[in-house]
Amino acid sequence: MKPYEKFVENMLKAVREGQGKDPAAATALIHETLRNAGLMPGGAQSDAHASARPPFAAPFADMKGAPAWGSAMPEGGMPFADWRARFDGLRQRPHPATPEAPGTFLEGEFGNEAGTRRYRLYVPARAASGPRPLVVMLHGCQQDAGDFAAGTAMNRLAEEENCLVLYPEQDRGANGSNCWNWFDAAHQRHGQGEPSLIADMTREIVRTHGADPRRVYVAGLSAGGAMAAVMGAAYPELYAAVGVHSGLPVGAARDLMSGLHAMKGTSKGKRHANLRRRVPLIVIHGDQDAVVHPSNGEALFHQFTHDGKLSEIEESGTTGTGRGYTRTTALDDAGKVAAEYWVVHGAGHAWAGGSPAGSYTDGAGPDASAEMLRFFLARS
Question: What is the model's pTM?
Fold first, then answer.
């Protein structure tokens, strides 16, 4: 059985046992699974994925969705909330270095009826000759805005291209693992929940910093990638293109259990959303992803290209470090690029070409930040 199949299968089994009034067995299975995956002390993560520091599968979901787990814990057992807090404390989250760019990295806060979130905003040092493009970057679970900025090195590229970069930051009060709630039906539609908050924050930055409304883009990693896909589907009038790294299709999950199935690649949820308008999309996914099954990348690509009805061109290449990749390009009826799908061979669940200054990065490439920015700036 492949690593990701065994990992997520055991997590699904743990959730079922926890909801089936056997929380002690569930906790034991979780600990064993995490140790075998190298995500708890005593585990032996393979060298091939050691630098990626892959996150625990369940951070996509705030496990409060399974109340029976904690409430049924026998006396002397470990409540799930305590277990989650203990796990969250295990990971040594790096302190992001000052962005390797001479611009200003602002801190701010924005709110609407859906809540309030903090954000970071990179403003290039170069003078603007006109309205700048804006790239919205959504971090993954167990990350924050500064960490994601450091790991992707997007600010350095933005300085070169004179772009603004907005990093909305999830609040632990909204999700205990700092995940965007992509899996929750209440956060998947236009005008509701976190999508409305991210969209309104985007509009506010466009207004206050003079960004070009025709060149606004959104990208993300993992849970942030899944939410970026939601944003593109829900707000095609706002975002000119979408970038998803190691994410999932829109509507692949509605709750915790379906989210775990989606991560495993066996979701029975909606994989083919009724997109309001086709939005250009670039997908990057490692074919050895042990957290989000690689089939999710292909499903997302086809979701945004009408199930492969567009003509496609496939090509292969190798990075300077020797890592191979396959890029599939979908062309519309006019011969223009509608989407790109990159399969990075041998890569796990981490931002390709990222910096070790941030978490969940894989420096072997290809450079996901550069490829996404190239794709974005060719569209408006």
Answer: 0.79
